[in-house]
């Protein structure tokens, strides 16, 4: 029996690599939040000692920057089809969805971490698609930041609402109903819209804002 207990697990027999460490860290953060991440806890599912991780990540910041770069690697890069707006819309929605599948990633945008190759590839692909659509270098600069701000900013705005929603539909409703709306008819109306059931064909808030940005950019692109 003692010999059986000493046998390495199948997970431990797989050679350790930087990618494997980063993927395990992402899974841990997805499950329990970024605050749960420590070298000791990360080492457990990998079947190694914590010190072994430092052969693949230099320190905690290197681990976090690598995780964020893996997030960027999941984003669908823009194609080069006929309609640049459809290309950019798919990429923006992909970026939005990836951030929501790794909710901890948004907090890393505010940390002084190094930028990895996947993020550079994403930036170059988006900038290149805007340039191929006919935007000048200056307008491409503005368009890139308008899109990036909408994607990241919207997810940051949405995350607290998702946290409320996980407490159950009644919890979110209780918060809205507790807002003092006496004498504030437009706010009361806004809250009613929030609580109304979704209808077929409704456009969500993210895609509504995205459409405004893309349509506005198209008009500016066509302006001599």
What report would you give on this structure?
The protein folds into 2 domains: 2-57, Homeodomain-like (Arc Repressor Mutant, subunit A); 80-222, Tetracycline Repressor, domain 2. By secondary structure, the chain is an all-alpha fold. The N and C termini lie far apart (80 Å). α3 (18-32) packs across α4, α5 (60-73) runs parallel beside α8 (117-132) and α9 crosses α10. The protein contains 12 helices and no strands. The longest helix has 30 residues, at 137-166. Mean pLDDT is 87; it is low at 1-6. It has helices spanning 2-5, 10-13, 18-32, 39-46, 60-73, 84-101, 105-108, 117-132, 137-166, 169-177, 185-195, 205-222. The chain is 67% helix and 0% strand.
Name the beta content range: under 5%
Secondary structure tally: strands: 0
Total count of helical runs of at least 4 residues: 12
Q: How does the overall form come out from the CA principal axes?
A: flat
**Low-pLDDT residue intervals, each spanning 5 or more residues:** 1-6
- Quaternary state, please? single chain
Q: Considering the protein shown, what is the CATH homologous superfamily of the largest domain?
A: Tetracycline Repressor, domain 2
Structural class call reads mainly alpha
How far apart are the termini? Answer: 80 Å
| Second CATH tier, the architecture of the largest domain | Orthogonal Bundle
Instruction: Fill in the CATH topology of the largest domain.
Output: Tetracycline Repressor, domain 2
* CA radius of gyration: 22 Å
Helix content class? 55-70%
Question: Please, what is the average pLDDT?
Answer: 87
Can you tell me the number of structural domains?
2
Major sheet: size, sense and barrel closure? none
CATH class of the largest domain: Mainly Alpha
Order of helices and strands: HHHHHHHHHHHH
């Amino acid at each position: 029996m003692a010999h059986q207990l000493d046998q390495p697990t199948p997970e431990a027999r797989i050679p350790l690599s930087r990618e494997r460490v980063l993927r395990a860290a992402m899974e841990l953060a997805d499950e329990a939040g970024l605050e749960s991440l420590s070298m000791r806890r990360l080492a457990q599912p990998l079947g190694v000692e914590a010190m072994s991780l430092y052969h693949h990540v230099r320190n905690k910041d290197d681990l976090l920057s690598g995780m964020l770069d893996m997030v960027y690697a999941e984003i669908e890069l823009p194609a080069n089809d006929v309609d640049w707006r459809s290309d950019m819309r798919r990429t923006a929605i992909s970026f939005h969805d990836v951030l929501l599948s790794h909710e901890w990633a948004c907090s890393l945008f505010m940390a002084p971490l190094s930028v990895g190759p996947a993020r550079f590839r994403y930036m170059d692909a988006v900038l290149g698609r805007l340039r191929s659509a006919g935007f000048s270098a200056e307008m491409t600069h503005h368009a890139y930041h308008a899109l990036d701000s909408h994607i990241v900013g919207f997810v940051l705005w949405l995350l607290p609402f998702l946290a409320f929603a996980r407490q159950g539909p009644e919890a979110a409703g209780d918060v809205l109903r507790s807002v003092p709306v006496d004498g504030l008819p437009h706010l009361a109306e806004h809250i009613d819209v929030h609580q109304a059931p979704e209808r077929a064909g409704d456009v969500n808030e993210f895609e509504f804002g995205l459409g405004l940005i893309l349509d506005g950019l198209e008009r500016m692109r066509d302006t001599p």
